[in-house]
Amino acid sequence: MNLARQAFLRLVARPLAVLFTGADVVGREHLPRDGPAIIAANHNSHVDTLLLLTIFPARLMGRLRPVAAADYFLRGPLIGWFSRTLVGIVPIARHGGGREDVLAPARAALAAGDIVIIFPEGTRGAATDELGPMKAGVARLAEAFPDAPVIPVWIEGAGRVLPKGAMLPAPMNCTVLVGEAIRWAGEPARFMEALRERLEDLRKNAPPQRWLSDPEPDPPPTSAAATASAPPARPSPDS
């Protein structure tokens, strides 16, 4: 891992993620401990990539390779250098035609033992935290590397921190929910159905959002505490 990327992720990206999102993680134990592996996450904001790059331990940061659109992230020399050198993207052509294998760079990253981050929806959705239609590219990667675990990840709230088209982030709590790995089972349609089900299950378990300045909600009272705090019963007229 180059020193510039390490410094950026540890000293800039991670503090920014905590500052603007709180960077809560549920199911951290399901994150891969080495590569090759595939992270398949929903996508509503550029903050998604920031969060996923910063929730891993420092020793794995150099292995994290987010798949990104070449036409957007390589559109100029400065943003191209930033995307390749500091973010470490795997650039793919969104509008490849003919016989071009647009996933070849992602396959090369997996072959090198990297952890590839892919957003199956293909583009950022609305800030509604709803899962859009998914493309089958993740299934093609899983088929090419059947021993690589595919970890479903649901990111709740990033679309409200920095919605598509916005320039300035709003500090709001985000939660990254990590599910158990899915393995390639031989059929693309079945694999995609299983991935969608896992992502939807994670979404249903996401906690409510809050502004980062708001206090933590009080936990629900236990049955003993509820009984102790209940008002005394009125005596019966017959007693």
What would you say this structure looks like, in words?
The protein is α/β, with parallel strands linked by helices and 239 residues long. The chain contains nine helices and seven strands; from the N terminus they run αββαβααβαβαβαβαα. Helix 1 packs across helix 2 and helix 6 packs across helix 8. The chain is globular, with a radius of gyration of 21 Å. The N and C termini lie far apart (80 Å).
For the biggest sheet, the summary is:
7 strands, mixed
Beta-strand proportion: 5-15%
Rg computed from alpha carbons, rounded to a whole number of angstroms: 21 Å
Oligomer: single chain
* Helical fraction: 25-40%
For the secondary structure, the number of strands is 7
Helix/strand/pairing category: alpha/beta
Task: Please sum up the structure shown.
The chain has 239 residues and is of the alpha/beta class. 36% of the residues lie in helices and 13% in strands.
Fold topology:
Blueprint: H1 3-21, E1 24-26, E2 37-41, H2 47-54, E3 64-69, H3 70-73, H4 77-87, E4 90-92, H5 104-111, E5 115-118, H6 137-144, E6 150-156, H7 158-161, E7 175-178, H8 188-204, H9 223-229
Parallel strand pairs: 1-7, 2-5, 2-6, 3-4, 3-5
Antiparallel strand pairs: 6-7
